[in-house]
Write a structure and sequence with these properties.
The protein has two domains: about 1-115, 3-Layer(aba) Sandwich (Rossmann fold), CATH 3.40.50; about 125-275 and about 305-324, Dihydrodipicolinate Reductase, domain 2, CATH 3.30.360. Helix content is about 35%, strand content about 25%. It has helices at about 10-20, 35-45, 55-65, 80-85, 100-115, 130-140, 170-185, 275-290, 300-320; strands spanning about 1-5, 25-30, 50-55, 70, 90-95, 120, 145-155, 190-200, 210-215, 220-230, 240-245, 250-255, 255-260, 265-270, 320-324. The chain is globular, with a radius of gyration of 20 Å. It starts with a strand and ends with a strand.
């Protein structure tokens, strides 16, 4: 399949160098960005010799016929890019979050349904072997019914791109991954959300870099989530530290290792990642197009993560528990 990548910021360049120029799964035929310096720099990369560069997606689509578009622009631009793709009836694989604000995310979903053009969100954390293994253990029923989930995330993360200027950089750009993991691993959606958020005086972020979430999920599961991008040092990996309490045992996850504690014996699993999880995202999207089915992280499923984020923002502004 042929694709055009839109966006060459930090995330876009990473997609280009680490995924698209190293895979035989797809053929990159064009790259779009408004920044000529970024475009010219990308053009010098090995493998870019036959790839055309453009400042404007409409211009690119007047000259090229991609099978889909990879949208790696900042979230505030996602709707504009996605709508151009929809108008041309071209499927979209978009980086998360769906948009910067919930109303835009809803419009993208509604437009996608209206024109019947698929869009899938690159919610790549759930595609890792690590998370898949945890999901398999929980789904097996070995721990019985799940009572509670505790998730801790602590990183010293300094960004100089749009991320540092977001009002909710942790919630929108990072915690949304963890929210998806919570939904995926437990197999349960949220019913209520309560949130507290703040920024330490010494933080380099303009917006809220720290958050606490209390979620009530289906199946009577209680979730406590605490995250920080302004930690003194990075103490967890990007997938967090987890404790999942079941009626027959406990599952703990930390830094690529899963520990299960039960009365009939303990189990430790060190999970190796054979591929970048974005490769699995890309493969899933292509398979979904080839088989005319929704991708696993299609927008209709992924917007449920954004609904939790939106509820958390409402909780922050009202100090109330928000029902979904």
């Amino acid at each position: 399949m042929k694709l055009i990548q839109v966006g060459l910021g930090d995330f876009g360049l990473n997609w280009l160098k680490d995924i698209l120029l190293k895979t035989n799964t797809v053929q990159l035929i064009g790259v779009v960005d408004k920044n000529d310096e970024l475009l010219n720099s990308a053009k010098e990369l090995p493998g870019m010799e036959d790839v055309l560069i453009f400042n404007d997606l409409k211009d690119a689509l007047s000259k090229l016929k991609p099978d889909f578009i990879l949208n790696v622009t900042p979230p505030g631009i996602h709707k504009e890019i996605n709508f151009i793709a929809f108008e041309n009836r071209i499927p979209v694989l978009s980086e998360k979050p769906i948009a910067e604000i919930y109303s835009d995310a809803k419009e993208i979903l509604e437009k996608s349904i209206e024109v019947n053009v698929p869009i899938m969100i690159s919610e790549n954390y759930r595609y890792s072997n690590y998370v898949r293994t945890a999901k398999k253990i929980i789904s097996s029923g070995d721990l019985g019914r799940i009572d509670s989930v505790s998730v801790d995330f602590n990183r010293k993360h300094i960004m100089t791109n749009y991320h540092k200027d977001l009002e909710h950089p942790l919630l929108l750009d990072v915690s949304i991954h963890h929210i998806d993991m919570i939904r995926y691993i437990t197999g349960s959606d949220a019913k209520t959300v309560f949130a507290r958020s703040w920024t330490p005086e010494w933080s380099w972020y303009k917006g809220y870099s720290n958050i606490q979430l209390l979620l009530d999920l289906e199946n009577n599961i209680k979730v406590s989530y605490r995250g920080s991008l302004s930690a003194y040092q990075s103490e967890t990996d990007w997938s967090c530290d987890w404790r999942i309490e079941g009626e027959k045992g406990v599952l703990k996850m930390s830094n690529g290792t899963i520990n299960v504690y039960k009365n009939d014996g303990d189990l430790e699993i060190k999970v190796a990642e054979s591929h970048d999880s974005r490769e699995f995202v890309l493969n899933e999207f292509i398979e979904s197009l080839n088989n005319n089915r929704p991708g696993e992280t299609n927008i209709s499923d992924n917007i449920k993560n954004f609904e939790i984020v939106d509820a958390a923002i409402k909780s922050l502004t009202t100090s109330n528990l928000i029902k979904l």
